[in-house]
Amino acid sequence: MKKETIKRIRDFTIDRDWDQFHSPANLAKSISIEANELLECFQWDEKNYDLCAVKEELADVIVYCQNMLDKLGLDVDDIVNEKMDMNEAKYPIEKAKGKADKYNKL
């Protein structure tokens, strides 16, 4: 995410004095709630969805994730690359390519 976007998210929270409500537990709940609202966009029709609504809900998830990163003092690139290292080890190309099986079923 661009630095300007991260700053905008942070300023939004600071300007409203909302950090006091941003415990890790509250942020985790909010991420889950917004992710479920994103899923709701596809509830009855997986092909004919409202892209505008999808973008809004996806943005909400991303904003809460950035708030969680800030609260825990984490860097998105660091944690994503750590997870990708684990995923690459669990899902080697030669075993996983073209398959949707869980790593312990490959």
Descriptive notes:
This protein is mostly helical. Helix content is 67%, strand content 0%. The chain has five helices and no strands. The longest helix is centred in the middle third of the chain and has 22 residues. It is globular and about 50 Å long. 4% of the residues are buried.
Attribute tags:
106 residues, mainly alpha, Helix Hairpins, 5 helices, 67% helix
- The SS-based structural class is mainly alpha
Q: Please compute the radius of gyration using only Cα atoms.
A: 17 Å
How many domain regions? 2
Name of the CATH architecture of the largest domain: Orthogonal Bundle
Please state the average pLDDT score.
97
How many individual β-strands?
0
Distance between the termini: 34 Å
The number of helical elements comes to 5
CATH homology superfamily of the largest domain: MazG-like
CATH topology of the largest domain: Helix Hairpins
General form:
globular
> Are there runs of 5+ residues with pLDDT below 50, and where?
none
Strand content: under 5%
CATH domain class of the largest domain: Mainly Alpha
